[in-house]
Design a protein that fits this description.
The protein has 191 residues and is of the alpha+beta class. The protein has 3 helices and 5 strands, in the order ααβββββα. The chain has a domain at 43-167: OB fold (Dihydrolipoamide Acetyltransferase, E2P). Strand 4 and strand 5 (141-156) form a beta hairpin.
Length: 191
């Protein structure tokens, strides 16, 4: 009896083990392909200050920067976006404090991108590759901008900020902070 039970257990484990290993390999393969898709996790190590000081030494490396659009111009070979850099939060959303900016950069989109879709003041996050630097006039001086070739451009809306604030309060329901704090709320239901 004991030998038969051990044999059944061994057969059952031998049939389930390959299926478990196959499921694990499929899951790990999916995680690997997500990182290759360009989520910017490896690019967060490159800081804006590094790119500003020596853009040619980090040429070809991935970068994730964000900020406020200053101008967008359509050129013959693509769209040039001038962006005031702002620090990114945990969800790669640029902040609002303009005093935290470390400078400006140019994001370049080779495909057609209508400048009207990026009016001044729009907050964006750019994932791309550092390509070079360019010197352009800024007021009465010349300014050297690092240039990022855009791989992914995320435009942030004010509603994105409101949604993140609502998610931070899990018990808040609707426009009021509780089920009984409506305009017709009374402390006793029958008065």
């Amino acid at each position: 009896m004991c030998r038969k039970l051990t044999l059944c257990y061994t057969v059952a484990m031998l049939t389930r083990m390959p299926l478990s290993i196959l499921a694990l390999l499929v899951t790990l393969t999916g995680c690997t392909s997500m990182q290759e898709a360009g989520d910017g996790s490896d690019a967060k190590a490159l800081t804006f200050q590094q790119v500003m000081t020596a853009p040619n030494s980090v040429k070809g490396q991935a970068a994730v920067f964000g900020g406020k659009v200053l101008t967008a111009r359509l050129l013959k070979d693509g769209t040039r976006i001038e962006i005031l850099q702002l620090p990114l939060d945990g969800s790669t959303r640029p902040g609002y404090d303009l005093t935290q900016s470390q400078g400006r950069f140019i994001a370049f989109q080779r495909e057609f991108l209508d400048p009207a879709t990026l009016p001044p003041g729009t907050r964006v996050t750019v994932t791309g590759e550092v390509s070079s630097s360019i010197t352009l006039p800024l007021d009465e001086t010349d300014y050297t901008y690092p240039v990022i070739n855009i791989k992914q451009l995320r435009v942030w809306d004010r509603s994105d900020d409101a949604a993140s604030r609502l998610r931070s309060h899990p018990y808040m329901v609707g426009p009021y902070w509780g089920p009984y704090w409506g305009p017709y709320w009374r402390p006793w239901p029958y008065w």
